[in-house]
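Here is the promised in-class demo. Please do not try to memorize the tokens; focus on the logic of going from shape to residues.
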């Protein structure tokens, strides 16, 4: 899914790219969101959220009553239990992401051309894993990968490991303990919290969060390559392609960069035969014991527990992802 709202002059403080502020039990997977005026992705008071393999791009610098907002993603002060993994944040001033409360898993994300990477922007509490992310300096501002702002609440602790920083002229490499990297915070003031808040071992949220499933975690530099190849809605549209070109060239700028034709480069293929017009190809229905003359069997619950139309659409999506994965494997073969 691609979400590209063009600002209409309405109340800018409520004009988000996508808003799930009061929702719970949300999974966003391979979604591309851009051009939010207040927030590109608003999860303000959302609980039990996973955002994975998605792109949060090019927030607007105009339209907000407070001035340039251009923020990526927020969860808090009242949100709880969030996992953000294998996402691309590009062209935002801050909140890449902003998460106030743990337990929170922030891993294998890529942030390009941002000032602040991880922040709270609200009172902070709980436990945070910040693992295997990549922070790439862009041309719009200085890079501050971690900024632990806000007052400290109950049980606040951070585990950080294998976070890759690419800030030419200052530092390029992996950081496990940002308190011990003077280049990041010459006076330790920018971290905004003493090293006593650092945890020595990774938090195991499966003990405390019912249904928690650990994320398959890659090395930060591998995650960088995977995210650029696979994250977001597939196939990529002109907006995401433009952002990826910016990363490759190390250029681009903050702001909502509208495009005249969102379908540019996206060529629809020929639809498969679907005699009963239920949204599922006849050949797929036959292969799965359904009827190509029954327009209602799209809602049949399959052995998996999902409906037939859900299984069919998921297989189509999986094929797109497999193509992207094959591209990554081929690139890896070329460079070995």
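The designed amino acids, position by position:
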């Amino acid at each position: 899914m691609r979400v590209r709202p063009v600002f209409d002059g309405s109340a800018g403080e409520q004009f988000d790219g996508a808003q799930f502020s009061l929702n719970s039990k949300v999974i966003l997977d391979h979604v591309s969101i851009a051009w939010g005026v207040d927030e590109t992705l608003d999860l303000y008071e959302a609980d039990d959220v996973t955002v994975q393999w998605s792109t949060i791009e090019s927030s607007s610098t105009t339209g907000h009553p407070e001035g340039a907002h251009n923020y990526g993603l927020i969860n808090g002060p009242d949100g709880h239990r969030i996992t953000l993994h294998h996402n691309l944040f590009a062209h935002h001033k801050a909140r890449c992401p902003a998460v106030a409360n743990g337990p929170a898993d922030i891993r294998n994300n890529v942030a390009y051309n941002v000032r602040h990477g991880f922040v709270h922007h609200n009172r902070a509490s709980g436990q945070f894993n910040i693992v295997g992310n990549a922070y790439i300096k862009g041309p719009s501002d200085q890079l501050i990968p971690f900024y632990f702002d806000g007052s400290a609440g109950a049980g606040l602790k951070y585990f950080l490991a294998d976070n890759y920083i690419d800030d030419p002229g200052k530092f390029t490499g992996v950081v496990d303990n940002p308190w011990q990297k003077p280049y990041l915070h010459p006076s330790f003031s920018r971290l905004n919290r003493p090293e006593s808040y650092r945890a020595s071992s990774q938090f195991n949220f499966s003990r405390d969060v019912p249904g928690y499933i650990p994320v398959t975690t890659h090395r930060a530099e591998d995650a960088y390559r995977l995210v650029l190849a696979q994250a977001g809605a597939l196939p990529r549209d002109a907006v995401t392609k433009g952002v990826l070109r910016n990363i490759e060239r190390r250029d681009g700028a903050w702001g909502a960069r509208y495009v005249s034709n969102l379908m540019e480069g996206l060529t629809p293929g020929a639809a498969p035969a679907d005699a009963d017009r239920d949204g599922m190809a006849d050949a797929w229905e036959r292969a799965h014991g359904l009827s190509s003359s029954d327009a209602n069997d799209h809602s049949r619950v399959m052995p998996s527990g999902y409906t037939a139309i859900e299984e069919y659409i998921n297989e189509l999506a999986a094929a797109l992802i497999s193509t992207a994965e094959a591209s990554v494997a081929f690139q890896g073969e070329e460079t070995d």
